[in-house]
Specification:
The complex is a heterodimer. Chain A is mostly helical. Chain A is 77% helix and 0% strand. In chain A, helix 3 (67-82) packs antiparallel against helix 4. Chain A starts with a helix and ends with a helix. Chain B has 2 domains: 4-153, no CATH class; 168-250. Chain B is built from 12 helices and no strands. Classes of the chains: A mainly alpha, B mainly alpha.
């Protein structure tokens, strides 16, 4: 039930951001807001990439510096060189499995 | 036809989204409903990650809001081209606006060949590809009963590494990522649920905007100094305040 509520809430705010400017906007957004919004994806992507790699899940989160972080760094290198999300996933996963086989 | 590369780009993400969503505990119906109702890739990925970490509806909706606030910009820049349409026509076009269809659609308008029908075609084609690829992902996800056993939960952060790292080639994004990293680790260790996403999303982008504003001030002062004294005076007058809104052109 909570998940359905979440989906409806997401749908509402997404529609609002898409439709409001087209329905009510007359002028332009203020430049400081434009600049702020332009940095949001970088900030959110960083948060979502980093948390599962360095902080353990569950009710008692702890810092973990192990195979997931190393695999993430290998993936980051692949992303820098290839610019491809799928290259990043493939090489990062390969690194993770190798690390696990090596006992890290 | 102009959308073909974008379908190829979007479809695999639809598949990965669905696999991650099932792994996070969403039912197949919920996974598909999110693709149909929300129809925003980055937000759906984010929501799945947050739900897996036990986040509530409010935290997810607020994060979706700030993540999708960029659509405000896109819709705002389309608005002048769509003045001729009635409100329902505009609402219909807006409801399916995405990064991809915006990019192709506005490109046509800039070339002077844009039409609402072309934009609607871009929107609709993606709105077909996205749920279809989600369904493929649902089938695939059900074939792998325990993705975590293979370390497949790592696909999720690696997806974001792949999206993030190319953005870091833009210099202005680097301090934002650095601050976001610090806020993420601190927030994830100290705050409940997924509030770290919101903390990093709002905080770090604000820092980036502030730094960007300062650099713009300096740049303007420098260029003004090198051109003429009158310009330098006005730029200095403007730059003297700590107002974070460096506003319109002098």
């Amino acid at each position: 039930m909570m998940i359905w509520l979440t989906i409806v809430g997401m749908a509402a705010v997404t529609l609002a951001t898409r439709a409001l400017p087209l329905l009510v906007m007359r002028g332009e957004l203020p430049p400081w807001l434009t600049r702020w919004l332009s940095f949001v994806p970088v900030a959110v992507f960083t948060a979502l990439a980093l948390r599962p790699l360095v902080v353990s899940g569950g009710p008692d989160p702890r810092l973990m510096l192990g195979a997931p972080l190393l695999a993430g760094l290998v993936g980051a290198l692949a992303a820098w060189r290839t610019g491809s999300v799928f290259g990043t996933i493939a090489i990062g996963m390969a690194a993770y499995w190798l690390l696990r086989l090596a006992g890290v | 036809m102009a959308m073909l590369p974008l379908w190829l780009g979007a479809a695999p993400f639809g598949v990965i989204y669905a696999v991650s969503a099932l792994a996070a505990g969403l039912s197949p119906a919920q996974t598909l409903a999110m693709s149909l109702l929300v129809f925003a890739g980055a937000s759906q990925f984010t929501a799945v990650g947050m739900l897996a970490a036990g986040a509530g509806p409010l935290a997810v909706a607020v994060t979706t809001l700030i993540l999708n606030a960029r659509h405000l910009l896109m819709a705002a820049s389309l608005a002048p081209h769509l003045r001729g349409l009635g409100p329902w026509g505009r609402l219909l076009l807006a409801a399916q606006l995405t990064d991809e269809s915006y990019a192709v659609g506005i490109g046509r308008y800039i070339e002077g060949r844009g039409t609402p029908a072309f934009l609607a075609g871009c929107n609709l084609s993606l709105y077909t590809v996205w749920p279809l690829s989600t369904m493929v992902g649902i089938l695939l996800g059900r074939a792998i009963p325990d993705p975590a056993a293979y370390g497949l939960d790592l696909v999720f952060p690696l997806t974001f590494v792949g999206l993030l790292v190319p953005l870091l080639k833009v210099r202005a994004n680097r301090p934002v990522a650095l601050v976001a990293g610090a806020l993420t680790v601190g927030g994830a260790l100290l705050l409940p649920g997924s509030w770290y996403v919101l903390l990093a999303g709002v905080g770090a982008s604000g820092v980036g905007a502030w730094i960007g504003g300062r650099l713009e001030h300096e740049g303007r002062e420098r260029s003004a100094n090198s051109t003429n004294a009158k310009g330098a005076n006005s730029a200095n007058g403007k730059g003297a305040g700590d107002d974070p809104t460096p506003g319109g052109a002098p």
